[in-house]
Design brief:
two-stranded parallel sheet; 7 strands; 5-stranded mixed sheet; 6 helices; alpha/beta
Length: about 130
């Protein structure tokens, strides 16, 4: 059964898939010290999810707003997340082209960890997703 994109159930499935994807971990510049609270949101909808990496692994991911500062945040339209998930576009190119918009944090963090970021979004394609948000 397809999970609604960015729902709490989808986030739990994504967290499991991403933590199981060695390419995400290996793509970090320094995975052991990759400790960052982050968010992903939708540009055209009022949907934001919050997640935290500790030691290069996701420790939480939900729609519950973060209580502290966030190190990195992106927003985009569903279609661009889907393009990255389906391998039609690389995350870094979407970011540099403005389809994924950095609204919080340092672009250097994204650039230094572009390989991990690409695998992170590509992993979304492993989840049976209902993209109609």
């Amino acid at each position: 059964m397809a999970l609604k994109f960015l729902s709490d159930e989808w986030c739990a499935a994504a967290m499991e898939a991403i933590n199981s994807n060695q390419a995400v971990y290996d793509g970090f510049q320094d995975p052991e010290s990759f400790d960052h609270p982050m968010f992903l949101g939708l540009q055209d909808k009022d949907v934001t999810t919050y997640f935290t990496f500790k030691g290069g692994k996701l420790t939480e991911w939900s729609n519950t707003p973060s209580t502290g500062p966030v190190d990195f945040g992106l927003v985009s339209k569903v279609k661009y997340y889907r393009e990255a998930a389906e391998g039609m576009s690389e995350a870094g190119k979407l970011l540099m082209g403005g389809q994924l918009k950095l609204v919080e944090g340092n672009v250097q963090l994204a650039i230094r960890n572009a390989e991990a970021f690409n695998h992170f979004l590509r992993t979304f394609g492993q989840i049976d997703t209902d993209w109609e948000v």
